[in-house]
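Course assignment 3, question 2. Fill in each field.
Student: A.L.
Task: Predict the tertiary structure for the chain below.
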Amino acid sequence: MNIPHGLKTENEMPETLLALDIGTEYIKAVIAERQEGDNLIIRGVGKEHQAMGNMYAGAIADIPAVIAACERALSRAENMAGVVAKTCSVGIAGELIKGNTKTVRYRRKDGNKPISDQEMQLIIKRVQDKAEEQAREEVALETDNPDVEVRLINSAIVSLSIDGYKVSNPIGFKGSELVLQFYTAFAPLVHISAIEKVCAELNLDLVAVAVEPFAVCRACLGNNLDSNLSAIVMDIGGGTTDIAVVDNGGVEGTKMFGIGGRSFTHQVASKVGLDFDTAELVKIQYSGLLSNGLQTLKTLTVSDAERMNEVQNILNVPDRMKKVEKAIADNTEVWVSGVGLALSDFSLLEALPNKILLCGGGAGLSTLQEALATSDWYEELPFARRPVIHLLDDVDIPDIQNATEIDLDYSFITAFGLLRVTVDTLNSEEEETGLRAKLAKLLQN
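Answer field:
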C-alpha cells in the first residue's frame, strides 16, 4: 500500500537525508542513509514529470503545481525507502545564477602575527560583499530591475597561498601577503524564496540551496576534498545547460545558458508540425537511432502502441525525417556555440581541463555527445588537445552506494551531489575544533 508523503514517521531515521532535484522536465527525490565516514547508501528514489509552465529557464514558475509534483515524487521515494526524510538540499539553476571565482591579494599589517579566525572572517566577508555587488549589478542589467535582490548560495575557497607558499588552511600561519582564490554563487531572492516556500509546504528542513553544477562537482569529489580532479562538468537539463570548471579539486566557476532538452523538442515540434508530447518522443527515438559509437538515450517504453507507431511512421517518411534532422542539427549547432561561449569566460585558467563529464536528462541525447566528441568547437578555446567526453553514471560517483533496484543513470547525478552538499552543511554545523572545520564555518552564509 502506498502511504502519502509525510505520514510514515515512526520509521524515520535521524541520519536519513533527502535530495530534491526540481528540474524543468522531471522532479527527482532521492533518499539516502548516512553511514560512518559520511558514506551514503541510496534507499529510495522517486521521479515525477513536470507539466509545461511549472518551470521557466530552470526556475520555479508555478509554486502550487511544483509542490504537487514534489509531493508525488517524495511519496514514491519514501515508499521505496520505508522511511521519511526531512533534512534536504535543493538544487538551483538558470541564467540568472551568477557563480565566479575571484583572486584577492591581501596585505597584512603584521606578518609576524598568526592569522586568526576573526581575520579570515573579515577577509571572506569583504570578498563576498564585493562579489554580491557585482552579481546584483549583472542580474539588474539582465532583468532591467535596478532593485533586484540576490542572496549568496554557495562559496568555497579554490586556493590559498601565504607569501607564495600554498596552504590548505591559513589559520595559524604567519605571513605578509595572503592570496585567495574564492568561488561565490548568488541567485535572485525571488528564486530562492520559491524554493523555500515549496520546502515549507512539504514540511521539509531545508539545510542548503546549491548551484546544480557545483553540486555535481561535489558528487564527483566524494569524501576526498583533497582530490586533484580537473574536469568540465556539464549538467544538461530540460531548460538550461549548467557548466562548472574544476581545476585540481577546486571549482573555478559556474556558467549557465538557456538551452536544454526542451529547446530541441520545441524545434522539432515547430519544424515538423507536431504537438509537444509527440515531438518529445520523436526527438528521443531519433537520438536512439543514431549509431556513432557513443552511449545513446535508452529506449523509451510507451504503453500506447498507437502512439509509438505514430512516432515511427513520422521517422519513416523521408521528408519529415529530414525536417527532424535539420531541427536537431540546427539546435545542436546553437547549443555547441553556447558551450564555447560559456567556457571562454574562464580566463583565469591557462588551459581548460581535458575531460568533460556529462550528466542531466539532456545529456543522453547522442547528437550532443557526438557534437562535442567530433566537431571542431574546441579549437578556439585553451584546450591542450581534443577533450574526452564521458557520460557519468552512478558507478562514477565515489562514496555513494545504490541499494535500490533502480538504474540510477546520468540523470540522477545532480541529486547525488545535493546529498553530498547536505552532508557538508551538516558537518559544518557540528561543534568541531579542527582547522578545516573552523574554516568551513566561515564559509557558511
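Instructor remarks: The CA atoms of residues 429 and 441 lie 7 Å apart. Residues 117-143 form the longest helix (27 residues).
Grade: pending
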